[in-house]
Amino acid sequence: MLAFVLCVAVSAQSADKLYSEGKALYDAKNYKAAVPKLKAAAEKGHKKAQYRLGRCYDKGHGVTQNDAQAFQWYSKSAAQEYAKAQYAVGKCYKDGKGVEKDRTKAVSWFSKAAKQDNADGQFALGKSYLKGKGIAADEKKAKSWITKAVNNPKGGADILAKIRKDVADGDEDAKRILKLIGK
Q: What is the CA radius of gyration of the chain?
């Protein structure tokens, strides 16, 4: 039993080390070198490595772009309660990338991410309520979630900047959102 526990601990450490090395390479935009390390960590069950490997497949970073592979890796990470991956799975369902389009499932995943204080998940959930896509329209809930998103210290400023850019580009939904949240 002790040998098993030690083996699991060593495996977890090596997955963490592989992920750290892979993330550093990814952040340096050295995707070709990052992918093998991320994949090794992901195959050991490292949720952040699974998410980042999903991003590689989603964006074609260091690998051939592949929506189905992206969805599979995002799903493995999301199943481990990783909020960024939960949002990514929701986006896949919303857009029909790597999986059949399903707005109800998209909303379910956005909700999971939003409840973990993920700004992108909060914004996507708010927009779903605003448009009544995948869930019954509810302006009060839309306002609440979108407000949480733009006020979120992790990513809220970026979301608000994008909304304002979309308004400048003439996007009617963005205009409605700004008016709704009073910004």
A: 18
Residue 81 φ/ψ region, left for φ over 0, alpha for ψ in the -120 to 50 degree band, beta for the rest: left
What pTM, to 2 d.p., does this model score?
0.90
pLDDT digits over 66-102, tens only?
A: 999 999 999 999 999 999 999 999 999 999 999 999 9
Residues with Cβ within 8 Å of 98's Cβ and at least 6 positions away in sequence, in order, are 66, 67, 68, 69, 70, 71, 72, 92
- How high is the pLDDT of residue 13? 57
Which CA distances in Å does 29 have to 19, 22, 25, 33, 43? Answer: 15, 10, 6, 9, 22
Distance between CA 47 and CA 110 in Å, rounded?
18
Residue among 60, 15, 61 at smallest CA distance from 38: 15
* Secondary-structure percent of the chain, ordered helix, strand, coil, rounded to 5: 75, 0, 25
